[in-house]
């Protein structure tokens, strides 16, 4: 027996005029899973996520989150969902604690406000006005607002943009803790290491189409992560893909220049999958 998915995208399509920006995208996210949606700028990630959040209406296809069509979502459903949008305008005049206290009242089983402030690393700034915080600190307020209601499904759209490396690592730990509580998470990110650290599975989207979907350590197919041995000698540069890199190295004569063994990362696999889509956006170029 299969359980009902926490999030279901079934042939989701969004057109603006003649342009299809999300094209027949289907995936399911199981309860408790962390899923990353990856893709270049303009790929259709935010549009997909916003259709699942109920903020945009699909041209065709269906969405379901916690068994509910987000277009018909009510307040009870909203209280079970956490959203960190790509950009948010907060009430700049309120302090960090005030804004979180305000939102905590809306949710039936909200987290403790001060614990949440500490979890996003803003304890020292709890009494500061949000408008006086740095961009990265304001982003942490967005994340705090996303988790304050103890959501069952958390949507994170590029949550760590503007974070310094230390803040990003602290955020990863926070998200691991949120995931360990059983929260289902849909994350979009341009940081492939972030996806690798946090996500169980990922989908790669480009030009509105889902190109690949799998576990983050398997995406791109069985051979995508096969180690590569590279070296140079008098006859030129060599590259061999092999599951036995040590055996290849042992057969080399002398001490070849530039010898390296590389296990392709998620970023390498991503770049080879999206190929020319990364900088090829004909519709925009034509506009
Ligand atoms: N309201 C709109 N009207 C027309 N086109 C739109 C509208 N909203 C988004 N688009 C277009 O849809 C495409 C997908 O945008 P989307 O924001 O979903 O991409 P993304 O993958 O989230 O990109 P990024 O990584 O830059 O945030 C873009 O080409 C964008 O210009």
UniProtKB/TrEMBL annotation:
Keywords per UniProt: Antibiotic resistance, ATP-binding, Cell membrane, Membrane, Nucleotide-binding, Translocase, Transport
Domain ABC transporter per the UniProt entry, residue ranges: 7-232
Recorded GO CC terms: plasma membrane
Gene Ontology molecular function: any one: ATP hydrolysis activity
UniProt keyword Transport present: yes
Domain of life: Bacteria
Bilayer disposition of the protein: Peripheral membrane protein
Record GO biological process: response to antibiotic
Compartments it resides in: Cell membrane
This protein's name: ABC transporter domain-containing protein
Species this protein is from: Agrococcus pavilionensis RW1
Lineage: Bacteria, Bacillati, Actinomycetota, Actinomycetes, Micrococcales
């Amino acid at each position: 027996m299969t359980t009902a998915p926490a999030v279901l995208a079934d042939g989701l399509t969004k057109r603006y005029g003649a342009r299809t920006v999300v094209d027949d995208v289907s995936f399911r996210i199981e309860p408790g899973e962390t899923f990353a949606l990856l893709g270049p700028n303009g790929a259709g990630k935010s549009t997909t996520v916003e259709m699942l959040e109920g903020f945009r209406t699909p041209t065709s296809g269906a969405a379901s989150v916690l068994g509910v069509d987000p277009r018909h979502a009510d307040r009870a459903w909203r209280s079970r969902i956490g959203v960190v949008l790509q950009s948010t305008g907060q009430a700049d005049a309120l302090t960090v604690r005030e804004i979180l206290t305000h939102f905590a009242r809306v949710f039936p089983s909200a987290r403790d406000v001060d614990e949440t402030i500490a979890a996003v690393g803003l304890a020292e700034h709890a009494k500061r006005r949000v408008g006086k915080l740095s961009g990265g600190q304001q982003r942490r307020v967005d994340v705090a607002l996303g988790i304050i209601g103890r959501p069952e499904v958390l949507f994170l759209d590029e949550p760590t943009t503007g974070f310094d490396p230390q803040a990003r690592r602290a955020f990863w730990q926070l998200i691991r803790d949120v995931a360990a509580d059983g929260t289902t998470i849909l994350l979009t990110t341009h940081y492939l290491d972030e996806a690798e650290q946090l996500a169980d599975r990922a989908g790669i989207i480009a030009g509105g189409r889902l190109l690949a979907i799998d576990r983050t350590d398997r995406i791109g197919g069985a051979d995508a992560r096969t180690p590569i041995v590279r070296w140079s000698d008098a006859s030129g540069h060599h590259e061999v893909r092999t599951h036995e890199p040590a055996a290849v190295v042992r057969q080399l004569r002398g001490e070849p220049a530039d010898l390296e063994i590389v296990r392709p990362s998620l970023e390498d696999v991503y770049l080879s999958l999206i190929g020319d889509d990364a900088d090829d956006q004909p519709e925009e170029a034509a506009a």
